[in-house]
Structure formats: structure tokens, C-alpha cells
Amino acid sequence: MKKALVIGVGGQDGAYISELLLQQGYEVFGTSRDADAASFRNLDILGIRKDIQFHSLNLIDFRSTLQALKKIRPDEIYNLSGQSSVGLSFEQPVETLESISIGTLNLLESIRFMDMPVKMYNAGSSECFGDIGNTPATEETPFRPRSPYAVAKAAAFWKVANYREAYQLYACTGILFNHESPLRPPRFVTRKIIATAVRIQQGSKEKLQLGNIDIERDWGWAPEYVNAMWRMLQQEQPDDYVICTGVTHSLKYFIEYTFRQLGLNYEDHLVIDPKFFRPNELKIGRGNPEKAARVLNWKATVTLEGIIDRMIAFEKNKQ
Description:
By secondary structure, this protein is an alpha/beta fold. It has 11 helices and 13 strands. The strands form 4 sheets. The chain has a 7-stranded parallel β-sheet, sandwiched between helices.
């Protein structure tokens, strides 16, 4: 039985990859900074908490990282931890850089130090590309990060590439575009839109308060994206992959479709608030998934409308 270590098991991607790994017959170990105090609510939602073995691990602490790897000795590692909000990174740039970049370095160095035959997946981000206009980003597109979060993710990406080339580690990065699900925290704009719209339909008098709604993003379904992560570690040679749908929509369309599905006109309930505008905002996120399709035999199948419908259904059932 293969052992998989999921760092950041309580997050959206950590929960879904754990579910997939359990289905594949893995022994799954999950970590958070304080496993005894963590709620692991997402694992409860998926009904898999009882099937995971938990450990405390703080990637900022090299000793903690090394001790966890020595104890578990995993065959595969999925590094999904770190500060995950672009907006929050402008307020907490140091914590963002440390949790993502230094944390990834500690993990790589621990693997090298132990000389472990382990395969490592690192969570990258399409935010690293910055504003590239209408040209879909590929694995060869230069990075032009425009937020502390994107800077940290770009640094982690190059650390993974360096350790792969210099020390022959099996380490790869998935450059994932936006991917959503009901397991997103409420602070994420997609979950915020849907949760607010459902409450309004059920009688709430509140307004949906947002910033720039003219941005465009490539949104995918998170359970499909973790399948791409797993496929990356099943290849003979490690490599980096852009993971996306190849289809871009505006945030305004996301809002309009959500409210329309609930029998509402979004214009009656939306307030644009300048406090939600970021210092830097990417106008367009657009990716090219050709390499993932060709090498990993992976392709996104759930449309944006399908994602929204599923998230609305979850939110209604949760009330």
C-alpha cells in the first residue's frame, strides 16, 4: 500500500486529493500546523476524516518538517499548504512569502537531506503569469507576478525546478488556474457570491458587496483538478503542467448567472465597494491545457455553469 502525505489536508484541495487517494487504495497521512486543534470540517463534509492519519507539521520549521518525513516516510507528497488568498497577501506579505516560499524550500531540503525516493507535488498558481492579455498561458509563458501571493508562488516554482534539476528529485508543480467547489472558504469571491445570493433568495435584505467585477478568469471544478495533481506523480519523469479549462468568463457573468439561477436580477442586489479593490488586479486569466491533455490524458469536463449549479445546490442544502 502506497503512503501519501497531504500537507494542508484541511483545505479544499487537500480534502479532495485525500478522497481520491483513498479511492486509489493509498494510506493517507494529513497534516496541519496543529492537528489536535484543527477542525478538518471539509474532511467531515466528504465523510473521510476517520480514514486519515493526522500529524502536526509546520513547514516554516525545518525540524518539524524533517521529523514528519522521517516518521511517515511517504511515497508521495502533496504540498498544498500556505496562505491561499491573493487579496490577503497584500495585507500579510511576509506571512505569505514565508508560508509558501520558505515552506516549500524546507520541504525540498528535507527530502534531499533524507535522500528519500519520494515523489512531490507542489501547488503552483496561474497568478504567477500576471497580465498576459488574450494569449493563453502555457508552461513556457514567462512569469510576471503582480501580488505578494504570486511572487511567493513564483519563488516556490523555481525552487522546485532547481531541486529537480540540481539534485534529481522527483518534484513537479501544477500551475493551476482558478478552481472552485463548495469547500472553498467563505472569503473566496465565488463562494461569497453564491452564499450571499442564496441567502437573498431566502429572504435576506443584505447586499452583495464586491470590488472589480470586470475581471475575467478560467474557472474549473476542484475535484477534477486534484485528479490532474495525482496524474502528474504517476508519470515516469517529473514535469510542470498548466491545469485549466481553456475557457474564460467574466466575474460579472458569474454573478449574473448565479442570480438568474435563483430567479433574481443581480443588479438589484449588488453594491460595488472600493474597499474590495486590490492594489493590483489581473484583468484576464487565460490558460492553455494542451500539454496536460497530451501527456496526462487529462481534460476538464465541468463547465462554469455546472460549477455554479453544484455550489448553489450545496449552499441550499446547508441552510
